[in-house]
């Protein structure tokens, strides 16, 4: 370990008198040395690097921390303390190790989720495998987007209680129903509950806006198996209105006139179908996915889409105005504005990418 001893001497000098660039160079040399010998190191030797790299990584700039995280993420015996330190950093640094590092235990992942928040949780949901303690916690604390991401991860493992909570939530969440319906590990009794939830959702969609007697007729039709015919008629009706709007939106796109200003114009005038079609085209989403983002139960979705596309708060606010349940008070709008400004654009772009991927699979 003579190379380490030499680097340690350089490190002491650099930590006292060195510049940021010099500290970054020392870190790069240490990391190079570790990676070149990691395969033959025992845990005591790795521990030396853990102490040294850990000390230095607290005194380097953001870009260098991101690079360190990217380099250590795939290493099976990476310094565990350094990996945990990186995982608790801001999301740009934390994401590579949260997604890929095998050094993070279930206990680490739960603790990080509790200490940080949704951006870190979303990164954790991308791991190739997730244990029951992690999924239980994320279901409890993660919110709707995190829950959807977990349910769509085939490598996630759920306790019976955790899966039961997902199925219960699916009663009011069509997208979650779809994600759970693709899983191979759904217990038989919960699969029956999910099927019942899907029937109830179909009945609600068909009965919306009908008088009680007609709603009862539609409900009976669901149970008799006539749902497909009724749903087809409803779809055709909805598509008629959507197609008219989509023709105009495509005309604007072809004329290079489809932009944020058009979104604001449609939304501000209450032209909901046109605004949603415009969002769908610009965000590269299907019409149902765009409608879910703008008008669905997750109020943050429209903020994430707007932020992911680099749109202004004024555009997001115009889309919020299409919702009937968001709240029109100045306090509610101000809370939304503050939340919009705290969303990191890289995080919003990853969420938008996930929405596109899930949209393409449906």
TrEMBL record:
One Pfam family it belongs to: DUF2336
Name of this chain's protein: DUF2336 domain-containing protein
Organism: Bosea massiliensis
